[in-house]
Structure formats: structure tokens, C-alpha cells
């Protein structure tokens, strides 16, 4: 075992997992530097909304000392889940179960929603000034021996570290140090759209969506509408299809009209209200094929390096666990670093917990995606929601 004290810790990736890890390390008085490819904190949109689970994301927030700040930003009403058939008939709606007294306050054990951007901002602001080095795109990490690594960035800069933590997402460069595995296409593609000022400009669709998430599923097709802050509704148009469906359809993804027409063919016979989620978008369309790591994804211990979040266990969004697990990974790793005497001990302690946990979650995510995009997806989704909501 390498019991040399851990110094010069580098986290690659300023997503929820990497930032949580950095925050918990700093709470323990441990120095850390975070490197991220974004030019600055506001360089790109962070995506939709997340539900923070009490047994994962909320545990990480508590370890980070940020639970009160999170509660002030979260939306408990966002837990609403509504399932409708392709004709618009409501099959399931848990809205009435979310009421917690007259004040509508946070329910113990609930999973309130928070926008990804707000969560990232909360975590960024919690770190000591200068912790994050923006505009640092990692090209590769070079082993130097003894667990040390030299990080090489696209702008020519380098940094040496005694522990490199890969929190750099699905296409992680750090993962290559421990594993040759890469994400594979799941067979399902989402095309993202969105409604701005939904209550004013799209009141019918806003009412249909409700305060949380609307799902409509039928025969390997699905529409998901997700309420975000500031009256924005994010829409995912899902299809079980080949990865390059647009080539087969002769569609240029930059041609909004052509994409819309191709999608409408996929949803022939669906109710006019649901079709509005496709046609009334204010932001065009973004093609998002879904990828996942092999299940289980494991590796042999590698001195001076480990990975967390999507870099370790990318899974479909139908798990609802991606960001939650990434944050729990980050908190667990930081606490192991604080508790163990050296690099190897900390990595072993963390991976012993993270690997089996992520394998179980990833298997569940694959099953969830398979049931949501199946010939009998409506029936399967209704049975799942009745059991878990």
C-alpha cells in the first residue's frame, strides 16, 4: 500500500460530482484544484431539472454542509409525476400525495427538484475562490510513476498531481487510465425541445405538463415534458431507433422544419395536445442519443487515480440517479481521502462502496429504459409508478 499522504489533488470536471467532492474536501481542510473545459461558469446551459433523493443526493449535500441553501432553491412541487396515454388520457398523477399541510413545505423523505444550473451555481459558490481553473480542456493524463500524473491541457498548460479524480463525464479522458470501456448506444434517442414563458405563451401545454414531469409512452415512442424554473418547460421526444436515424430519414439536423416533419411521422395518431409538445417548441431541436457504460463497469485498482459519476457509470436518465450518484460518489471519495492515511487506502475504500452501488443502479436504469421504450411501455410505466410513487 502507498501510505504517502495525499497532496496536490486534481479533479477534472466541474459537474455535480466533481464540485461536491471538492466542497467536502475543503470542509476537511484539504487542498484541491478543479479543472474544467468550460470557458467560465456561464459558458453553456446546464440542462434540465434534477430530483435530489434523500438517500443519495441529499446525503451528499448534507456532507457538503449545503442542505439549507439547497432547500431554499429547490421546488418540492416539482416532484409531481403524471403519466398519460397517447390519446391524452391521464393514467397516473401523484399531485395530491405531495401536499404537506397548508404551507406546502418540504416533505421529509421527499425528492424536491432543482434546476441543474442552480445546483451547479450553489456548488461553485461554496468553494474557495480560485479553486476552479476554467478553460482547461484535458487532452490526456500521463502517468509519472508512484501514482503521480501529469495533466496535459488543450492550451498547452500542464499540471502535476498526486491524485487525479476523473469527474469528466461520459467521454472521460481520465477513465482511460483505469479502463478501456467506452459508452455504447442504448438504442434510444431523445430529441430535445423547449417552451419558454409556458404559462403565458403555451398555457394549454403548461396545464398538461403540471408542476413536475409529464410522460406519454406508447410502442417504443415517448414524450417527456419537464417543468423548470422561470416558466420554462423542457421537452424530450424519445424514440427507439438507430443511432443515425436522421441519415436514414434524409434529414439535416440543422433544418428545423425537416426535423419536425420527421418527428411527426414517428408520432402519427397521438393526441393533438401531445403533438403540440413537438410542434410548438421555441428553441428548435437538439438530437441527444442516449449512451451507457457496460453493466457492471469495474476495473483493477490503479495507483493515484479514480473516477466518479458518469465517467464511472454513465446510465440512462430513466434511472433518475445520475446526478444523485455522482454527488454521493464525490462525497464518499472526499470522506475516504479525509479518513484514510494514504492514496491507495482512500481509493480502495471509495471504490469498494461505489462499484457495487453503481452496478446495481445501472442495471436498474437499463431495465427502466427498456420498459419505457417497449411495445407495452404504457402498461409497464403505470405498474412502476403505482409501485414507487
UniProtKB/TrEMBL annotation:
<comment type="function">
    <text>An FAD-requiring monooxygenase active on some tetracycline antibiotic derivatives, which leads to their inactivation. Hydroxylates carbon 11a of tetracycline and some analogs.</text>
</comment>
<dbReference type="GO" id="GO:0005737">
    <property type="term" value="C:cytoplasm"/>
</dbReference>
<keyword id="KW-0963">Cytoplasm</keyword>
<dbReference type="InterPro" id="IPR036188">
    <property type="entry name" value="FAD/NAD-bd_sf"/>
</dbReference>
<keyword id="KW-0274">FAD</keyword>
<feature type="binding site">
    <location>
        <position position="310"/>
    </location>
    <ligand>
        <name>FAD</name>
    </ligand>
</feature>
<dbReference type="InterPro" id="IPR043683">
    <property type="entry name" value="TetX_monooxygenase"/>
</dbReference>
<dbReference type="InterPro" id="IPR002938">
    <property type="entry name" value="FAD-bd"/>
</dbReference>
<protein>
    <recommendedName>
        <fullName>Flavin-dependent monooxygenase</fullName>
        <ecNumber>1.14.13.-</ecNumber>
    </recommendedName>
</protein>
<feature type="binding site">
    <location>
        <position position="51"/>
    </location>
    <ligand>
        <name>FAD</name>
    </ligand>
</feature>
<dbReference type="GO" id="GO:0071949">
    <property type="term" value="F:FAD binding"/>
</dbReference>
<dbReference type="GO" id="GO:0046677">
    <property type="term" value="P:response to antibiotic"/>
</dbReference>
<feature type="binding site">
    <location>
        <position position="44"/>
    </location>
    <ligand>
        <name>NADPH</name>
    </ligand>
</feature>
<keyword id="KW-0560">Oxidoreductase</keyword>
<keyword id="KW-0503">Monooxygenase</keyword>
<comment type="subunit">
    <text>Monomer.</text>
</comment>
<feature type="domain" description="FAD-binding">
    <location>
        <begin position="7"/>
        <end position="359"/>
    </location>
</feature>
<dbReference type="Pfam" id="PF01494">
    <property type="entry name" value="FAD_binding_3"/>
</dbReference>
<keyword id="KW-0547">Nucleotide-binding</keyword>
<dbReference type="GO" id="GO:0004497">
    <property type="term" value="F:monooxygenase activity"/>
</dbReference>
<keyword id="KW-0521">NADP</keyword>
<keyword id="KW-0285">Flavoprotein</keyword>
<comment type="similarity">
    <text>Belongs to the aromatic-ring hydroxylase family. TetX subfamily.</text>
</comment>
<feature type="binding site">
    <location>
        <position position="116"/>
    </location>
    <ligand>
        <name>FAD</name>
    </ligand>
</feature>
